[in-house]
Automatic annotation (TrEMBL):
GO biological process, one term: respiratory electron transport chain
Keywords: Electron transport, Heme, Iron, Membrane, Metal-binding, Respiratory chain, Transmembrane, Transmembrane helix, Transport
UniProt GO MF annotations: cytochrome-c oxidase activity; heme binding
Family matches, as InterPro entries: Cyt_c_oxase-like_su1_dom (IPR023616), Cyt_c_oxase-like_su1_sf (IPR036927), Cyt_C_Oxase_1 (IPR000883), Cyt_c_Oxase_su1_BS (IPR023615)
Protein name (record): Cytochrome c oxidase subunit I
Family: Belongs to the heme-copper respiratory oxidase family.
Lineage top rank: taxon: Bacteria
Length: 602
């Protein structure tokens, strides 16, 4: 697969660079590095919004019915009369928080940012296969983000049926206020987002296949590129299914069809819908929804592989096993979606099949964890902020994975299904792990993005506040769930169904969780200050600050459209030649030719 020949037209214009104006450089840029930074900035802004929404509804859960100037300031009299949040707004905040975190922060912040930044740099390409499609991908992402944000400000409020938007609630505009225009805007936003993701994913796949430099075999690719590659394939195969689910839902809402509706009474009115099934939507949604977990996780795991190997000054342990685990996770992620539906009346035999496939996916996940631990073991570890967040990811991936085994078993899942136990599980295994991977990536590749260095001490402070705050939020949720607290309840103090002791425990833990959430939110201000201050005032970066082997560190600190001012370097070895016996230094970049009798690959 000597795809490097596709470089010929790129090399022709690789040497001369014209001055770009503000609009062509920052707005309509087709440079993959700028587009990566645009994705990052947008994702960070959306993440701040989602974090604020979570603080608002956590205040309601900790101190239900109490007046709050904070709620009054952000929500106004319409949605928090007298400083007390309305139930409909609570549901809206939970819905938009979940949607932003899963799609706009984690998908955009990881795939959008790092696939764009690193794929051409690490495979030795001038740019993406199509700069125009890349630019369109970002602008559609931005448009979908803005529509989702604007839905918070309409008179009837945002979508309010949870981030999974199950029908029939989401299919009936007359059901509740949040099923009206806000729900329609949610669907429009997600349709544009899916189009953006498909454009990006196709671009990533074509670039990795066709634009690798000379010598860059598939078995010499960094594990980051393997992770982005499989992630892109997952996106191409699964996102169209969510698009079809959303379009059918839109038709039920606006065109009188009955894909998801049957024999429903709203108020005292019997609707004329017959023959549909809300379970059809669940099948379509979760067919995307579980690959989406790995669309979010795999890039974070790939970044972590690179960072751990670089900072432990050791070759990554089990390179081929890591590739195999990525491929296995990608395949298995498509045949586990039914574990979200164990209590829908699913045939027990089909349920047992999903139990088996879900437990099976723990094996390649465990391979990755063991490989990380073995790489760190007895390494000359350098604990940069990026390395700390990578180790944090390994911690959360293990912690969340253990509870995943409980939820994978249908007999055990029934007891805690749709409780806070589930929220605790996926926030730790997916949310925290992916966010930690994103932070690790920002700390590690910030010098490549902006030519400056982040403040290390602020990075350490950010890590410790974040990991303590995040575990303080999500670990107690397991006990809230085991006490029987269902998710998405507005006020746990008014339900007589709970045992009195359990109710008191739920209320007390909600206060603790909210305090930790506020602490963790303040911790992110450290990161935001460090990030924006360092862009303008940080110390200038050297070309290869981490003494890393991959190709991106052979490009100049100053950005060049085309990445390398001269010819694209040729690759002679795999990317993890660290601490090689007999070498003069503890790293050997991929562009260094092999010595006499030296084996270049693992």
């Amino acid at each position: 697969m000597a795809a490097h020949e596709a470089h010929a037209p790129h090399d022709a214009h690789g040497h001369h660079h014209h001055e770009e104006g503000f609009i062509s450089k920052y707005i309509f840029s087709q440079d993959h590095k700028m587009i990566g930074k645009q994705f990052l900035m947008t994702a960070v802004f959306m993440g701040v919004v989602a974090m604020l929404l979570s603080i608002l509804f956590r205040i309601q859960l900790a101190w239900p019915g109490e007046q709050s100037d904070f709620l009054s300031f952000f929500l106004g009299e319409t949605w928090a009369p007298g400083g007390v949040m309305k139930e409909s707004m609570y549901l809206g905040l939970v819905t938009i928080h979940g949607t932003i975190m899963v799609f706009f922060l984690l998908t955009g912040g990881l795939s959008g940012t790092f696939s764009n930044l690193l794929i051409p740099l690490q495979i030795g390409a001038r740019d993406m296969a199509s700069g125009m499609l890349n630019m369109l991908s970002y602008w559609m992402f931005l448009a979908s983000s803005l529509i989702m944000l604007f839905s918070l400000f309409i008179e009837t409020g945002p979508a309010s049926s949870g981030w999974t938007i199950y029908p029939p609630l989401s299919a009936l505009p007359q059901a509740i206020e949040g099923s009206g225009l806000g729900m329609t805007m949610w669907l429009v936003s997600m349709t544009i987002f899916i189009a953006s993701s498909l454009l990006g994913s196709l671009n990533y796949i074509v670039t990795i296949f066709n634009l690798r430099t000379k010598g860059m075999k598939m078995t010499r690719l960094p594990l980051t590129i393997w992770a982005f590659f499989i992630t892109a394939i997952l996106g191409v195969l699964s996102f169209p299914v969510l698009l079809s689910a959303a379009l059918l839902l839109m038709m039920d809402r606006l065109a009188g069809t009955s894909f998801y509706l049957s024999d429903i009474i709203v108020g005292s009115e019997m609707l004329e819908n017959h023959g549909g099934s809300p379970l059809l939507y669940q099948h379509l949604f979760w067919f995307l929804g579980h690959p989406e977990v790995y669309i979010v996780l795999l890039p974070a795991l790939g970044l972590t592989s690179e960072i751990i190997s670089t900072n432990s000054r050791k070759p990554i342990f089990g390179y081929r096993a890591m590739i195999g685990s990525i491929l296995a996770i990608g395949f298995l992620s498509f045949i586990v979606w039914g574990h979200h539906m164990f209590i829908t009346g699913m045939n027990p035999f089909i349920g047992s099949v999903f139990v088996f496939t879900t437990l099976l996916i723990a094996i390649p996940s465990a391979v990755k964890v063991f490989n990380y631990i073995t790489t760190i073991w007895r390494g000359s570890n350098i604990y940069t902020p990026a390395m700390l967040f990578s180790v944090g990811l390994v911690s959360t991936f293990i912690t969340g994975g253990v509870t995943g085994i409980i939820l994978a078993d249908s007999a055990l899942d029934i007891a805690v299904h749709d409780t806070y136990f589930v929220i605790a599980h996926f926030h730790i295994v997916m949310g925290m792990s992916a966010v930690f991977g994103m932070f690790a990536g920002v700390y590690h590749w910030f010098p490549k993005m902006y030519g400056k260095m982040l403040n290390t001490r602020l990075g350490y402070a950010h890590f410790w506040v974040t990991i303590v705050g995040a575990y303080g939020v999500f670990f107690p949720m397991h006990f809230v769930g085991l006490a029987g607290a269902p998710r998405r309840y507005y006020d746990y103090s008014v339900y007589g169904e709970f045992d009195t002791n359990a109710q008191e425990m739920i209320m007390d833990l909600n206060v603790i969780i909210t305090i930790f959430a506020i602490i963790a939110a303040f911790g992110q201000l450290i990161f935001l200050f460090n990030f924006f201050y360092s862009i303008y005032r940080g110390p200038k970066a050297v070309q290869n600050p981490w003494k890393s082997n991959t190709l991106e560190w052979t490009t100049p600190v100053e950005h060049v459209h085309g990445n390398w001012p001269g010819a694209i370097p040729e690759v002679h070895r795999w990317p993890y030649d660290y601490s090689k016996p007999g070498a003069s230094e503890d790293f050997i970049p991929q562009i260094v030719p092999l010595g006499p009798g030296e084996e270049g690959d693992h």
